[in-house]
Amino acid sequence: MRSRNFVMVALLVSMLALSACGGGGGAVKIAILAPLSGDVATFGQSTRNGVMLAVEEWNAKGGIDGKQIEVVVEDSQCSPEAAVSAANKVIDQDGVKFIIGEVCSSASIPVSEIATPKGIFQITPTSTNSSVTVNEDGTTKATIFRACFIDPFQGKVGAKFALDSLGAKTAAVFLDQGNDYVRGLAEVFIEEFTAGGGTVLVKETYTGDDSDFSAILTKVKDADPDVLYLPDYYSTVNLIAAQAKEKGITAVMLGGDGWDSSELDRAALDGGFFTNHFSDQDTRTIVQDFVKKYTDTYGAPPDALAALAYDASNILFQGIDKAGKADPVAVSQALETGTFEVVSGNISYDAQHNPVKSAVMLQVKDGAVNYVDTVTP
Amino acid sequence: MGQTVFRPAQTGVMLKRRNGIWLNRFSQGLFVLLGLLVVYVLGRAFFQNPSVFVQQVLNGLQLGFIYALIALGYTMIYGIVKLINFAHGDVFMVGAFTSFYAVATLDLHRWPAWIFTGISDGVMMLIGTVTVIILTMAVSATLAVVMERFAYRPLRNKPRIAALITAIGISFFVEYFGALPFVFTNNYITYPRPFELSVFSAGMIAPWIIVAVWVFFVISVIAYVWLTYLSRKGNVQAQTWKRHPLLQFGLLFFGFMAVVLTLTGVEIQTGGKVWDLSASNVTLVIMGGSILLQVLLQYVVSHTRLGKAMRAAAYDKAVARLMGINVDGVITATFALGGGLAGAAGVLYATAFKQVHHLMGIIPGLKAFVAAVVGGIGSIPGAFVGSLIMGQTEVLAAGFISTPMRDAVAFSLLIVVLLVWPQGIFGEPPAEKV
Prior knowledge:
The complex is a heterodimer.
Chain A: H1 2-23, E1 27-34, H2 41-60, E2 68-75, H3 80-93, E3 98-101, H4 105-118, E4 121-124, E5 144-146, H5 151-165, E6 170-176, H6 180-195, E7 199-206, H7 214-223, E8 227-229, H8 234-246, E9 252-255, E10 273-276, H9 285-298, H10 304-323, H11 328-337, E11 339-342, E12 345-349, E13 355-356, E14 359-365, E15 368-375
Helix pairs in contact in A: 2-10, 3-4, 5-6, 10-11
Chain B: H1 21-48, H2 50-81, H3 88-105, H4 111-115, H5 121-152, H6 160-178, E1 189-190, E2 199-201, H7 207-232, H8 236-242, H9 245-265, E3 269-270, E4 273-274, E5 278-280, H10 281-303, H11 305-315, H12 317-322, H13 327-353, E6 355-356, H14 362-375, H15 380-401, H16 406-420
Antiparallel strand pairs in B: 1-6, 2-5, 3-4
Helix pairs in contact in B: 1-2, 2-10, 2-13, 2-14, 2-15, 3-5, 3-6, 3-13, 3-14, 5-13, 7-8, 7-9, 9-10, 10-11, 10-13, 11-13, 14-15, 14-16, 15-16
């Protein structure tokens, strides 16, 4: 037993030594941690596709400072356990210093807790929970960044859009009490909408299992608000919207990036607006180039996850380029001070490593989702 | 020897403990106070805004009728086999998916137009929808029979808990088997309705329809009263006619229709404000469908040979077998009927809420089960009444007490009913076996 342990340790040590040698060569090694199997496998596939596209582009240009980019892909399954073991593997065994991932906040947070003490750089494309980049005591994790905006931001943009562009005076808000994402958006929306002079007439909660919303919709119909804010995922929003139409509610429906799905019930939500990270109808050249290349490579238009993964990679590569060396601390400093033009807007970073950028407002109209406006709060 | 003696359960069993009289008085008092509080809250809501209150009652009615369809299957299977078939909610889910594929992939709801060109849209929708429902019922019935044959029959003579646990296992199996990408999907899918939804509100329904519905209702009531009078006088034929399914259907269907159509179709004004009530055609179809199936089921159970065999098997399987009844066949038929009902409920539920997914059966299944227990499990009218109570409880709790508490209130109903009437509202007290 003891001898077997000894062999194991010897093996591990030699592997570490070998990998340390491998990491020092003429390449920049990055790792993708994404859920490639399980419930949200499509999220992981889009993320991987987005990163690979950016890597191919940079390598075709001759790499960063003449160094080619090497990619290690690991399936982290959107679960804390799998993400931690994948992160340990890429850091210790593959000698990776730059991680792109995870997709889900619940997996990104434990990864950031491993990466921070080891001085590894991590950028998550899509994790919106604020504790990904911030420690419990409120200090910012030095080498952890994100490419997406955080939850409260969308509530703020939604409220601003309702007040200014729609001219709304009154609103109704529905929220799932048990879902942090929904609550985050809804609470900030209420705060901003009230602060901007609007009145929230109805605030109702439900649970994720509900499918009959007739009782609370009857209240909304009686109150007759200008907008109905539904910051939930498409599955619940579809149910509420269909029943709202049947009840004859005419309020404009508003939502967040949870609506971004091909399964969104576009007939029931006709005339509704939602905030999102990017739109493939955005006319900026960088967006149109990305959409064209992605569609040519993968045969389908990119979704927000692919766009954000592409952005996260570009931010990282531009950061390495700007810092002049593939060192996590130097890259972090480059990100903190720089501005980056990427698909989802012009990004600079605030003190908590959250991007300061704009959101796009999309409208569901006649069975299609159309780009309306870019909103900067 | 070794026989357990069951005494008929009495109402208020739990409150008749020998010692602790003050505790009993106290808890009785609490119950009464809670009841008064609920009455006060609902009463205040009614007088503050009667139109919203009545609309909520209409919402609750739709929900209740959906639960009724599911609860009928639960109660029937329990009545015959004494098994709570927890996989019933999943048969319901499979029904919803079957109709989804029939409508979305096969376009089956439009089949009359393939054969008879130039058929009017209304007739096509009617025939097509009925076809979809019948196909779905057949698929769900088959599934329920397969479940019975392979999962429950081998355990028929084992302790009842074994079958119950198997039922839970089957339920999980169907749910997660359905989640596989090559079976159904684990995504939430928007359901294309086989017929278009239209909403009725004041002035949209021709007055003659409302009058006609009322006339039919009044005829049914007069017939019922007259037959009751005759049967009191000892007329045997009148007693049979009084229980005729056509009369029951007339009473229930036209009664509910008359109330709903009058409320939505007639402009009611209070204090200068027009009541803005509405109901959709889906609500009416659900109402009609569940009343029809409920009456049909009662007809099958009380008027046919199969029903007679079912009742005999429910009473005593061993003796029924001695009398030459094919008990296995009867049980298979029971599962087929229950599965068919669940399938029909699946179609109507998906039509009402426009969404299908692989876990959709769990919550409606549980609530319908509670409704069946409230009404008295094993009793068909009990399942119907229990479901209507359940629907009202849920919607009124969400509307006037607190939305996050709707499920808490709905499931508390189960506890209260079990404490006060352990056998449910329509349930028969356990028979005395010595």
